[in-house]
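Interim report, section 4.2 (structural modelling).
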Amino acid sequence: MKIFIPTPLRPFAGGKDTVEVNAATVAAALDELTGTYPDLRKHLFTGEGKVRAFVNVYLNDEDVRYLPEKDGTKVSPGDTLSIIPSIAGGR
Amino acid sequence: MASTITPIEYPELTTNDLSRYSRHLILPEVGVDGQRKLKGARVLAVGTGGLGSPLALYLAAAGVGTLGLVDFDVVDASNLQRQIIHSTADIGRKKLDSAEEKLKALNPDLNVVKHDTLLSSASALEILKDYDIVADGTDNFPTRYLVNDACVLLGKPNAYGSIFRFEGQASVFAAKDGPCYRCLYPEPPPPGLVPSCAEGGVLGILPGLVGVIQATEVIKLILGKGEPLIGRLLLVDALNMRFRELKLRKNPECPVCGTHPTVTRLIDYQQFCGIAPATKEDQRVKNGIPQLSVKDLKQRLDNGEDIYLLDVREPFEYQIANIGGKLIPQNDVPKRLAEIPRDREVIVHCKMGGRSQKIAEFLHQSGYQRVTNVSGGIIAWSEQVDPSVPKY
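Predicted structure of the assembly:
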């Protein structure tokens, strides 16, 4: 599946805007991503391994927090995962 | 959906209005009734910068009757790459005055209300209460949360837009029964993690794209037509020119718009965003790193002191302006530590002092004994030491 990396986090993912992973669930996909790019981990997860409050993870167009199985949701190769951090620019 | 404008008596259209807005009037979705709603509408644009410029211009052109503007800033040359409401001749003028002039030139019937202030918890409710719709085009997290909470508390929809480099986000928050900004982002990122446009850069056209999306949503809310971006987050990727849409849900546990809100009045948003007020001590030492003013740096360089001046900006920034420091971009520092001497004082600078502080802290943790941060960075140098060093 494809994971979209937002601009602010690209420096921690080798500059890539998308990363292709092979995983069975949302959590496994994020594990594989942060395994390949360890610098991403602290930007995505708290010390306890929870997704940070200013980052949202979407499976296709659904917020993973609102899926019944949360990050245990199964994924297939055609799905996309989007990491959406808060940005504040406007001037 | 229903119009958000309170159905007071909408103002009548004049003969001039009928010709001026003829392309609206022949649209069934607008028509005479819609144009009267626009004329009666009161919209507040928070910020007259990158997003606020196109937003305000299009709302003025569309015939919105009253447009409030909130800004405290003056026009700087570096604004003109994107803040199209301001011109070269406006450099140094108050953004409010510059914006009012352009808007009145475009549409003399427009009622412009200027709020010359930095929106604060003390003033926000008083300012926002007189408007039907708010359009947030500010540039920092504390004000984003402040505008959101004020909109929720007052029940005013917020046409939201934000930008970073080539990416934008837009939505309509705090509409009746819709999610708010805090449903999406309950907490802000720690200070310094997400760079501002001044630190991270922004494609000049991007706020044009996103500001016009905000203006479109404002108009739709006034007319009560179409599908507003309520419960949807629109993502704009200008580099790949992709628009994507994500579903937003109202969080029943949201601290401000949930079923049992804990935020029932405006709070200290600087503190909420982890920004502690600067103390005298902070000005000298921050997180264990001594802070050096640009004037003192100049003095020490002139004295010929043994200093290793480290510039942690990117190569393209160095190309625009530099003060002779050794260039190692921030992300390369960890793998190039061998190049940075441990037996000399290392003085770190960047553009504004944010990145260099982080790197100074990193060097300190890596065992460097004498590390100092240049507060204000090369921008302060240009302003206080050598104006021939270009500002960017």
